[in-house]
Amino acid sequence: MSESVAKTNGPNAAVTKKPTRGASAVTWADDRLGLATAAKKNLRKIFPDHWSFMLGEIALWSFVILLITGVFLTFWFKPSMGEVEYMGSYAQLRGLHMSEAYASTLDISFDVRGGLLMRQMHHWSAMLFIAAMLVHMMRVFLTGAFRKPRELNWIIGGLLILLGIIEGFAGYSLPDDLLSGTGLRIADGLVKATPVLGTYMSFFMFGGEFPGDDIIPRLYMAHILLIPGLILALIAAHMLLLVYHKHTQWPGPGRTEENVVGFPMLPVYAAKAGGFFFITFGVTALMGGLMSINPVWKYGPYNPSQVTAGSQPDWYMGIAEGLLRIMPGWETSIFGVTLSWNVFIPGQLMPIILLAMVLAWPFLEAWVTGDKREHHLLQRPRNAPTRTAFLAAMITLYGLLWAAGGNDILAVIFHLNLNHITYFMRGAVFVVPILVFMLTRRWCISLQRQDNETLLHGYETGIIMRSAEGGYTERHLPISPEAAYTLTARDRDTVHEVEAGVDENGVPASGGRIAAVRARLSQAMYGHNVQKPTAQELDEGHHHAEDEHAHEIEAGLDHSADGHQFDGRHPVEGEELRSH
């Protein structure tokens, strides 16, 4: 052994007497920052493995791609509304007067090597970022992953979606083309619809009368600095809370509220996450190279007197666009001031109300159930029928408003009357989501009933048996212990009853009305659910299956016909069903 190495048969790990420069630097940093302690705990942190958990990673990696491509674009984009004469490569617009922002966008698209690819990758990754966040939040909502202690992370997710939409709007407004200018004109109308303060807010935002000369530079600073900074801060908070609370997991054998079954951060999860980033980057690059998006050269420079035919915003603005198009023309004049409810309600009020309803659900559910426990096991969507039905209704409403935002396109393509489409959508947004809610909840309850039948009587084998009397029955076989564990790994719902309005002395009980409201909500949300079988019901079901099998033997039905050997009671190594 070298003299510079300490003995290794003692209680302490072997270390060199003269550490290397790298080791000294690491020791110096650890003494002051405590990095080793944090690394030991977090680098071996366990993460469960399920495909649905990758939805959040798609959003994260899409944001990273947004940052990479955005930095590239900032080198050539000029956020100025100063007028120039375009003399670039695109012949159809050569000689036209336009803003420097639009001219630089054309230069990036046609004169900068790889510029169009970066532009389209940037735009596609923005689409994927918002889409992945929405689908990720839907997964969280359906599985109850927002329950204690993750309510704050649910709010952060909602704020991230809101900021992502604002960031996307600011981004596609920057080229100053005719389509994006039309979107800014709509935004100006939304701001001016604000009671009392609308015109002042518009003048402040645009630096004067629309369109002014300041909106592109201001949007540019918000797009590359302010909003990305807020998004980065919220993503960091989201990830820190994820690590602090530990990851949720699907129920299964060996998985409890106290543990996490999966792979450690290093080396398994880090390698998989790194590979997934390159997959996301590759798919985005293919989309940017092969699928055209936002071809601004077709629209021309913005002119306040013109509107692009068939103007449509990016898909995530569909809810506001649809509300604006189907809202009746309600206005009120008070003391000479016109209040444009037909713009204020659909453009400002309703989107915030819908978002607030979704974000408030965890707190409503916790109040109705009175559940104060921590939850780390996910729920199957069928085991929360009301919650699943609510999300289905919200998705339906979003889809209807999305279609309503393209009512002019629908009228042209399908040769329909534009007014008929608008009137239909006005009624459909109230009727169809309610029907979808009722249908989805009944569907989930039926699935709960099917799960109970499977637990009590086994699964349908497709083996038809004939009794001596000529009757036909289908053989049921017990499910595996793993499947039974998954089906029973849920809590029984507690339905609160309406308590008496007065106490034993006849005095009205405090909080009686609130308790009554809570009890009615509890009955509406959980009263129709099918609860999982009790231990006694499971035992009775298994004894019934044993008795049936005994009767089959007595009746001479337990013969060796093909398929009957797969009854869960005989060895079947090497056995196969005959092909038909």
Automatic annotation (TrEMBL):
GO biological process: respiratory electron transport chain
CC per GO annotation: plasma membrane
Residues that span the membrane, as ranges: 51-77, 124-142, 154-174, 220-244, 275-297, 349-368, 389-414, 420-440
Pfam families xrefs: Cytochrom_B_N_2
Molecular function via GO: metal ion binding; oxidoreductase activity; quinol-cytochrome-c reductase activity
Provenance organism: Nocardioides donggukensis
Protein name: Cytochrome bc1 complex cytochrome b subunit
Keywords carried by this UniProt record: Cell membrane, Electron transport, Heme, Iron, Membrane, Metal-binding, Respiratory chain, Translocase, Transmembrane, Transmembrane helix, Transport
Region described as Disordered: spans on this chain: 560-580
Protein's membrane topology: Multi-pass membrane protein
Recorded catalytic activity of this chain's protein: a quinol + 2 Fe(III)-[cytochrome c](out) = a quinone + 2 Fe(II)-[cytochrome c](out) + 2 H(+)(out)
Main location, first listed in the record: membrane
Domain Cytochrome b/b6 N-terminal region profile positions: 25-251
Entry EC number(s): 7.1.1.8
Cofactor(s) required, per the database record: heme
